[in-house]
Design brief:
331 residues; alpha/beta; Arc Repressor Mutant, subunit A; Rossmann fold; 2 domains; seven-stranded mixed beta sheet; three-stranded antiparallel beta sheet; 15% strand
């Protein structure tokens, strides 16, 4: 079975371009042309807001446009030559901004103000808007399947499902994860847990994949309601929508819903622990800054620490597909 990564790489190319263009418009490369700068000084010179600044600058590191040593940033040789506005003979930045006019406007606004570009006050507001109409729900569910399908197939192969019989997908969207897991493992049954408007899309998708008789949709709010019980609880592309307090709250609720020996699986576009290589993870964190106040992506080590704080043991991180990885913990 092939990976969707070559296709999704093309989608992420759009965001990599936006990140570079934002740095050009904010004058990051020109500010660093004379000398390397610590993050605080670079923020002061470019007007970067402290909130999204670290993810933004480290995304530029992961894209190969900056280097970072002991918290001090410097241009790459290519950025120094071609993205410094002080070198008119070789500067390409204005040409890029002209060709892609307006592409980075929303990201630049977030980087300057630290405020989400949309009207949502927090993740609850974001989901209320996203689930407001049938069309918006279905569009969101399709987006989540596109983001998750490679990881769903990888989790089906790499997690020890032979030890377990039931799973709960918390924030299941249209059910890509349980559908692919159940196709691969006939002994499993599953529950998809999401807000009520997700039901129709979930039931249609799981029926198309031929697993409707082994999966059930439970409607609820994962902050207001107890999580369904299962041997394994999965949180995929969920925690990054929230601040640290909410992340911990959801992990605590997952722990409470598991039996002894049960497992939690968190999968995301995890940022690498050194914050140097997974550009997509860092860019996705910038997207969270743009859409959901308080939301942010995180490293595997951070997630392991949150799991330990909420009672989980024997945690580990494993790569899945493309920029995606999972963090596993046991009760």
């Amino acid at each position: 079975m092939t990976s969707p990564q070559p296709v999704t790489d093309l989608m992420w190319a759009h965001w990599k371009t936006k990140t570079m263009l934002s740095a050009v418009e904010l004058g990051v490369f020109t500010a660093l042309a004379k000398e390397p700068l610590a993050a605080a000084e670079l923020r002061a010179r470019t007007g970067l807001h402290p909130g999204p600044a670290a993810d933004f600058l480290d995304a530029l590191v992961a894209l190969g446009l900056l280097s970072r040593s002991d918290g001090v940033y410097a241009n790459s040789p290519e950025a120094q030559e071609y993205l410094d506005a002080g070198k008119p003979a070789t500067y390409l930045g204005d040409s890029f901004l002209t060709q892609c006019a307006g592409l980075a406007d929303d990201l630049v606004a977030v980087l300057r103000t630290g405020e989400a570009a949309r009207a949502a006050r927090d993740g609850r507001d974001f989901y209320a808007g996203t689930y407001a109409t049938e069309d918006s729900v279905r569009a969101f569910q399709r987006d989540m399947t596109a983001l998750s399908i490679g990881s769903a197939r990888a989790i089906a192969e790499r997690f020890p499902w032979d030890r377990y019989r039931t799973l709960v997908d918390v924030g299941c969207a249209e059910g890509a994860l349980p559908a692919w897991l159940l196709r691969r493992h006939p002994h499993l049954t599953a529950v998809g847990f999401d807000l009520p408007p997700a039901r129709a899309g979930f039931e249609a998708y799981t029926a198309r994949l031929g697993v409707a008789d082994r999966v059930e949709f439970w409607a609820g709010d994962f902050f207001r309601d107890p999580l369904p019980w299962g041997d394994v609880l999965v949180l995929g592309h969920v925690l990054h929508n929230w601040g640290e307090d909410e992340k911990l709250q959801l992990l605590e609720k997952a722990y409470a819903a598991l039996p002894p020996g049960g497992a939690v699986v968190v999968y995301e576009t995890l940022i690498d622990d050194e914050r140097r290589s997974n550009a997509v993870g860092l860019i996705l964190s910038l997207i969270m800054h743009a859409e959901v106040p308080g939301g942010f992506d995180y490293t595997g080590a951070q997630c392991q620490e949150w799991m330990r704080r909420t009672g989980f043991r024997d945690t580990y991180v494993e790569h899945l597909d493309g920029p995606e990885s999972m963090v596993v913990g046991f009760k």
